[in-house]
């Protein structure tokens, strides 16, 4: 069974976007995964195809309507659909590599791209939407975040990466940032490739890479090392 992604959006023309190129694009052509982008406005009931309204209690901006979104979700995800329902939201739980792997091992995902000030809380609760964030910053809408999530997932699908082992040593896979990389030429502007990497001693190379990964993580993302479940946590 291929990974099936259904994206609910006000801008379906944004898809597949970058996902139609490179590894993801080739996998899409090979039907390793599928993508459908659904226009939310198609589920509005008035002639103006209205999908939003003013926030209850007052305030700036507009809020996406629960009734319209519920119809759209029910259309693409009827009873029995085992795919998780995701809402791309800055207040969501941060996306991690572990969650990406879980999604890649599943049947797909229904992804709702929020716009305006947000989504009516009632549809989040009624349709069991899992709020997901791709970072502590604000985007103009959920579409770029959905593209990021799908890119991270698709590259892990069987057969997408030419060398499956390359995905095992990347940043976050083992709770560490990835070690530095080098390639030819041997010297670049007076800078040499570390001697250990050309020694041919695989044990020393592995130890060096591990030490460098731990060093970089300590310098740049000490929060990863501080996680209770991390093997290096103190």
UniProtKB/TrEMBL annotation:
GO molecular function, one term: tRNA (guanine(37)-N1)-methyltransferase activity
Keyword Magnesium part of the UniProt annotation: no
Keyword Iron: no
Location relative to the cell: Cytoplasm
Example of a GO cellular component annotation carried by this entry: cytosol
Record GO biological process: tRNA N1-guanine methylation
Top-rank taxon: Bacteria
Alphabetical list of HAMAP family matching this protein: TrmD
Record's protein name: tRNA (guanine-N(1)-)-methyltransferase
Protein's organism: Mesorhizobium waimense
Lineage: Bacteria, Pseudomonadati, Pseudomonadota, Alphaproteobacteria, Hyphomicrobiales
């Amino acid at each position: 069974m291929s990974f099936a992604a259904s994206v609910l959006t006000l801008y379906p023309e944004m898809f597949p976007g970058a996902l139609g190129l490179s590894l993801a694009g080739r996998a899409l052509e090979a039907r390793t995964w599928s993508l459908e982008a659904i226009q939310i406005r198609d589920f509005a009931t008035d002639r103006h195809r209205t999908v939003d309204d003013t926030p209850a209690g007052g305030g700036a901006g507009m809020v996406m309507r629960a009734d319209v979104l519920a119809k759209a979700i029910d259309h693409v995800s009827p009873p029995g659909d085992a795919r998780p329902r995701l809402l791309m939201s800055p207040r969501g739980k941060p996306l991690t590599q572990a969650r990406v792997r879980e999604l890649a091992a599943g049947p797909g995902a229904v992804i709702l791209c929020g716009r305006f000030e947000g989504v009516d809380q009632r549809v989040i609760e009624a349709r069991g939407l899992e709020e997901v964030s791709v970072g502590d910053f604000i985007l103009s809408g959920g579409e770029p975040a959905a593209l990021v999530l799908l890119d991270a997932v698709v590259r892990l699908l069987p057969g997408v990466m030419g060398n499956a082992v390359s995905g095992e040593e990347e940043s976050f896979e083992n709770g560490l940032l990835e070690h530095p990389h080098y390639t030819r030429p041997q010297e670049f502007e007076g800078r040499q490739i570390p001697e250990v990497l050309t020694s041919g001693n695989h044990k020393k190379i592995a130890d060096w890479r591990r030490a460098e990964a731990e060093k970089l993580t300590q310098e740049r993302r000490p929060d990863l090392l501080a996680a209770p479940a991390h093997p290096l946590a103190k």
